[in-house]
Amino acid sequence: MKNNRKNREAFAEHSFWQSYSDMMAALLLIFILIIAITLAIYKQKTSDLEQTRLDLSAAQEQLDATRADLESSRAEIEQQNKELEESLAQLQQAYAQAALTQEELDQAYLEIANAQAELSATRSELQNIVGIRTDLIGELQNTFENSSMTVDAQTGSITFSADVLFRYNSATLTSQSRSTLREVIPKYLEVLLQDQYREYIAEIIIEGHTDTDGGYLSNMELSYNRASAVAKFCLDEENGLGQEKIEQLQELLTVNGRSYSEPVYETDEAGAQTGEIDMAASRRVEIKFRLKEDEMIEKISSILQQQ
User: Fold this and answer.
1) Averaged in consecutive runs of 10 residues, what is the pLDDT profile of the chain (307 residues)?
2) What pTM did the predictor assign?
3) Cα–Cα distance, 276 to 267 (Å, whole number)
């Protein structure tokens, strides 16, 4: 009986420790599973966090790009607004300039009508001057028809040889030249200063010319002094013109010295220039006139430009 009790007690003690070991093993297994699950969850969370960081970085970059585009668009809009304001200001200014009142338009039409009337009158006057030139040159030619003096058919000028009027390198009229001038100049000027011609004459010109012998400036002085000597002769009442004609002449007379700037060239039998300077013919004093046609032409051009 004692032996059976001992055996049951020994068996019961062994069963207790076995259950305890099994329980500990189960707990350890559970602990290991928990750790494994925790590690798996940690790894997953870490991976998700990294992906979230990458997505956040990409989103930040996209946000920065969007912000830059927005700033650029804002700058473009501001520039467009500025250009629009400038265009609007220019347009308003253009409208203001173009907004002529009826009174201003009427005044402009009146000025145009006046200009057209003035242009018509000036054209008519110019046509009269063209006819006057022809009549004046014709009368001058008739006046000197039986004289040795020749009137230029194109310009109406007359020319005196300096060798006839002056001694070499001198600007003093010789006694013989004074006699010649008294026969010619009063007739010539009397025609120019007639009432029907005088109002159309802008200028009566006496020009002195030399040959190419010597310097330009010394010849300029000589040519001017010779022209001046002829002018003084014309303005002397003892030489044929009355006081009234002399006063009229003083208002129109111009004296020029041309040195050798306009020489006379020799011509061949056919009348063509040879290129050689005719020294004797170049030494001369010319008396010519200028009608008001130049002023008329300038006036017409001015009126046309205004229109």
Assistant:
1) 54 59 80 86 84 83 79 81 83 68 71 69 60 90 92 95 95 94 95 91 96 96 98 95 95 97 90 88 96 71 61
2) 0.57
3) 8
Q: Where are the alpha helices (DSSP H) in the chain?
A: 2-98, 102-143, 162-165, 175-192, 195-198, 216-234, 243-252, 279-282, 293-306
Torsion of CA 99, 104, 110, 111, to 10 degrees: -80
The two three-digit tokens of residue 253, written as one number:
């007379």
Express each pLDDT in 219-271 by its tens digit.
Answer: 999 999 999 999 999 999 999 999 999 999 999 999 999 999 999 999 888 87
Count CB atoms within 10 A of the CB of residue 184: 18
Q: Counting every residue, how long is the chain?
A: 307
Tokens of 307: 């229109």
What would the pLDDT profile of 267-300 be if each residue is shown by its tens digit?
888 878 888 999 999 999 999 999 887 666 666 6
Taking a C-beta distance cutoff of 8 angstroms, is the pair 153, 141 a contact? yes
Which tokens belong to 183? 């026969």
The three-class DSSP label of residue 202 is: strand
Calpha distance 28→234 (Å, rounded): 152
